[in-house]
Amino acid sequence: MACTHTMSTLIEINNLTRQFGDHCAVDDVSFSLNKGEVLGFLGPNGAGKSTTMKMICGNLTPTVGEIKINGYDMLEQPKLAKAELGFLPEIPPVYPDLTVDEFLGYCAKLHGLRKNSVKKAVTRGKLKCGLTDMGQRLIGNLSKGYQQRVGIAQAILHNPSVIILDEPTVGLDPIQILEIRELIRELGNEHSVILSTHILPEVQQSCSRVQIIHHGKLVLNESIEGLSQRMKSTRLTVRFHEHPDEDALKNLADVTGLEKLGQGKYRVHHHQDTPVSDTVARLAVTNNWGLLELTPEKHDLEHIFLSTTQQSTINE
Amino acid sequence: MNSLIIAARELRNLFLSPLAWTILGVTQLILAYMFLTQIDYYLMLQPKLVGLPGAPGVTDLVVAPLFGNSAVILLLITPLLTMRTISDERRNKTISLLFSAPISLTDIVLGKFLAIFVFLLIILLSITLMPLSLLTIGELDMGKFFACLLAMSLLMAAFNALGLYMSAIASQPTVAAVGSFGALLLLWIIDWAGTNSGHSSSVIEYLSIMRHFENLLRGLVNSTDIAYFILFIAGFLILSIRRLDNDRLQK
Fold it and tell me: Does residue A242 sit in the same domain as residue A219?
C-alpha cells in the first residue's frame, strides 16, 4: 500500500511484524490512516488484532517495522507519539478502589494536562460517555458496561488525535451499544479512530474503512464504499461439464464480466437487480455444455469476512 | 513530575485499603511495647552505670535498640507493602494505562518507589516520636540519634527497592512478598556463617545488610556503608526498570 506523507496522515504503519518465539503473531502489516477516518479492524480470534493495537500504542515492541503517530516515531520519540494517543485495551484499565472522578483526573494528569484543564477535561469526558452522574461512584461498584465507558472516557480525555479502541462494545447492553457507536461516529469527525471488533454490523455502522487481519496478515483493506460496492455486485457461480464458449457467455445481456475459476468453474458478474441465471442456464442447455452448478452469490460483510479469511487459510 | 502523579495515586490507593492502617497500628503497638521494656531495662542498669567513665547512655541503650528492633519488623512488613506495586498492575492489566501514557518507565518505577518510601517515612516518623518523648525528661545524643534516622531511611529505601524488583518479576503479589522476604532475610543473616566459625569472608561480610546498618546505628557514619545502601537501592531500581521494559519486549 502506498503511504503518502500528507499532513492529515495520522497513523502510518510500515512492515509491522511481531514474533513470539516461533509463532508469528503479526506478519508484515502496513497501512495508514487519515484524519477523520474510522477504521474497523476485523479478524477471527487470535488473528493478531490485539497484538497490532498494542504495538501501535507502544505496549509491545515490534520485532520489525515502523509506527508513526502524527509523524512521531513510536520507538524513537515514544513520549511525543503517545501524547497523541488514546487507548482502550481489551480489559479496561481501571482501578476499582478509585471513584470515577479520581480515576479520570489521574489519567488526565498522566497525559500531562495542566491542573486547571484537568477538571474541564474530566467533565467533558464524562459528558461524552454518559458518566455525568457517576463521578462520585467507586469504579469497582459500577457495572461492566459503565466500567467500559470509564475506559472509553479515559481514552478520549486528553483529546488525542488518534483513538484506539479494542472491542469497545463488549459487555454493553443494546442501548449502550447504540450510544457508543454514535459516540465513535462522532469521534471520527475530529480524530482518527481504530476500532477492533467481532461484531460485523458494528463496522458497517460506524466505520469508514475496513481491514481484515487473519493469521497475522492483512487480507483486506477496503473503504466502506468499496465494500458496499462488493456487497452490491451480485455474482453467479456456474460449473459446466464441457468447455463453454466464453465469448457467448460474456456477450449475454446484463453480464459485465466473466472470471475463470478453473475446473470448468466460472464466475459471472452481472448488473444488480437483473438476475441472469435464467439466460445463462438456457444458453448452457442449448449448447450442451453440461450445466452442473448454478449458484447466485449473495454478499454481505459476513460473507466477505468468511471468504477472505478462508481464502488466506487455503493460500497458506 | 510524572513520577509524583503516580506516587500520589499509589499512596492514596494504599490508604484506601485497610492494609496500610493495620500496618501502622500493629507496628506502633509492638514497638511501643519494646520501647517500654527497653526503658525498664535502662532504669535497672542506670545505678550501676553511674560512676563508670564512658558508660553507654540512653541513646545507646534505648534508642539504638529500638531502631534495631524496628528494622526487623520492617523486614517483615516491607514485602507486604511492595508486593502489589507492579505485579497487581500487571495482573489487573492496568499497566497498559501507564505504558500508553506519555511517561517513561523510569517515571513509573520511581513513582512506585516514592509512594512506598513516603509510607515508610510515615512509619519512621511515628517510631521517632517515642525516643523524642525522652527529651522531656532528659537528653539524647543528637549525633547518634540522627545517625539512627539516616540508617533507618537508607534501610527502608533498600528494602523498598528490593521489594519493588520482586514485584516486577513476580506474576502474583504473594509470590513477590515471599520472594522479597526471603531475599531480605538472607541478606540480613548472610554473614552468620562466617561469624560463627570465626573466619568470615570479606565479600560475604560486605553483602550483609545488617553489618552496614549496625555501623550506622552505632553512630559510625562512614562512606562505605552509605555507598553500599546507595548502590543497593540504585541497582534494584534499575533492575526493576529493565524488567518492566521486558514486558514490552517479551519474546
Answer: no
Nearest to B156 by CA among B116, B196, B126: B116
Provide the H-helix boundaries in A25-135: 49-56, 78-83, 100-110, 115-128
A88 close contact with B: CB closer than 8 A: no
Are A263 and A291 in the same domain? yes
Number of Cβ within a 10 Å radius of residue A212? 24
Biggest CA pair distance of chain B: 71
| CATH for A187 | 3.40.50.300
ipTM over cut 0.85: yes
Q: How high is the pLDDT of residue A1? A: 39
Please tell me whether residue A217 adopts helix, strand or coil conformation.
Answer: strand
Show which of A229, A253, A288 is a domain's final residue.
A229
Pick from B16, B95, B102: which is nearest to A79 by CB? Answer: B102
Q: CA A275 to CA B74: how far, in whole Å? A: 83
Q: Does position B194 have pLDDT exceeding 70, yes or no?
A: no
This prediction's pTM: 0.84
Closest chain B residue to the Cα of A91, Cα to Cα? B93
- Considering the domain architecture, whether residues A91 and A239 belong to the same structural domain is answered as no
- Name the grid cell of B130: 517515642
Residue B81 lies in a domain: yes
DSSP, collapsed to helix, strand or coil, labels residue A43 as coil
Q: Are A89 and A212 contained in the same domain? A: yes
Q: Residue A251 CB: number of other CB atoms within 10 A?
A: 11
